[in-house]
Design brief:
8 strands; 12% strand; globular; alpha/beta; Arc Repressor Mutant, subunit A; Rossmann fold; 18 helices; five-stranded parallel beta sheet; single chain; Helicase, Ruva Protein, domain 3; three-stranded antiparallel beta sheet; 392 residues
Length: 392
């Protein structure tokens, strides 16, 4: 093992440093210009501009698949808005999936407006009340960006959104305007009509990027991120083609180029080649599966964990029996067999299981269910969930 470590370090010493600005390929990086998003940038700026003369901007919902520029454009516009130095304008940005709980979402919002709350211990109503009191006291003009707003609503309900959308009379002379960002085009279907009527004042859908657009985006980022000659046009074209063939996902294309650069640097290469991109793609696919499993609701995780008990696959009856046993061991509510069948269909769509119909001749047909992911990966992620750790 020591020889292997020495070999890795020696190769790193001999290799060239390929990155000029590694941060230019990070998700937080905001470039000086955002190609192919002029229309969206203009509309968001027009919607938010009234805050500069003390008026409340309309609430805004931004939709689009992952990597279509929703977050980047929003942050770009808000950075320009704040660059004017308006002392009363406050921007709060919270990614609700990363915050993970309703309380932490509110705590991050509170911190942005200058309210200190304990890590835990208060009710969400108390935290909300303190936030509103601070906004009113200071007369701040607050724009709250809720990234992945659909995660907040699907996981915890829309009560917090209801409080936010109905708050402005309580905030005078301050104000609160919401910008919601969602990958789910059907996000609004589950909202309470009272929330829907006040939240959806302005809406915009971001279209996916084309492969040609991704090539130009990657080309501009590569010029900033790498030293000359590291990222050839062929490497850029391949990254764009691999990301564009799926969803027109600029985030995936940029991540692919970044990881390929890291692979090339570790291998002691002078430039990114096809093998570096292939290794980067394999790593991203592995990471994507892990992230998909982590983000599943606890009931869906329970069904997935029950599926893993059958190494050669199983049918719906056996699986449901294993699922109910697991739920009783862990104290999780047992869903009906029909609900579990719906969860299996969702897992099949995600590519985490295969649920195929098998003919049994005269005895009719049955559904054969097979886990498509490694048990080691599944066990590792399930052990992180306190509700399921004992059964993982």
């Amino acid at each position: 093992m020591e020889d292997e470590i020495d070999r890795i370090f020696y190769r790193a010493k001999q290799g060239k440093i390929l990155f000029a600005n590694h941060g230019a390929l990070s998700p937080e990086y905001i470039p000086e210009k955002l190609p192919f998003r002029d229309q969206q940038t203009t509309v968001i700026a027009e919607v938010l501009a009234p805050v500069l003369h003390g008026s409340r901007p309309s609430n805004l919902l931004l939709y689009g698949k992952t990597g279509t520029g929703k977050t980047a454009v929003t942050r770009y516009v808000l950075s320009k808005l704040l660059s004017g130095g308006e002392s009363k304008v406050v921007v709060a940005y919270v990614n609700t999936r990363l915050a993970n709980t309703e309380y932490r979402t509110l705590a991050e919002f509170a911190q942005a407006v200058g309210v200190r709350v304990p890590f835990t211990g208060l009710s969400t109503g108390e935290v909300t009340s303190r936030i509103f009191k601070e906004i009113q006291l200071r007369g701040n003009l607050v724009i709250l960006v809720l990234d992945e707003i659909d995660y907040l609503v699907k996981t915890f309900g829309d009560e917090v959104l209801y409080e936010f959308t109905r708050s402005n009379e309580r905030l005078l002379p301050g104000l609160l305007s919401l910008v919601g960002i969602s990958n789910d085009l059907k996000f609004k279907e589950g909202l309470d009509p009272r929330v829907l009527s006040s939240l959806s004042e302005e809406e915009m859908v971001f279209p996916p990027y084309t492969v040609e657009e991704l090539k130009e985006i990657l080309g501009e980022r590569a010029q900033t991120a790498f030293k000359p000659g590291v990222a050839s046009q062929a490497a850029i074209n391949l990254c764009a083609a691999m990301a564009g063939s799926e969803h027109g996902d600029a985030r995936r294309a940029i991540d692919l180029l970044r990881i390929a650069g890291e692979v090339a640097e570790r291998e002691g290469l002078k430039e990114i080649d096809d093998m570096c991109i292939k290794k980067a793609s394999d790593k991203m696919e592995h990471d994507r599966v892990e992230e998909a499993i982590r983000s599943l609701p606890v009931q869906t995780k329970a069904v997935l964990l029950a599926t893993s008990k059958f190494k050669e696959g199983t049918n719906t009856g056996e699986l449901y029996l294993a699922y109910t046993t697991l739920c009783r061991r862990t104290g999780i509510e047992v869903l009906t067999q029909r609900r579990v069948s719906g969860i299996l269909a969702e897992l099949d769509l995600l590519g985490l299981i295969e649920a195929s119909v098998v003919s049994k001749g005269r005895r009719g047909r049955t559904k054969r269910i097979q886990l498509l992911i490694g048990e080691q990966i599944l066990g590792k992620i399930m052990s992180e969930d306190t509700a399921l750790a004992a059964a993982a």
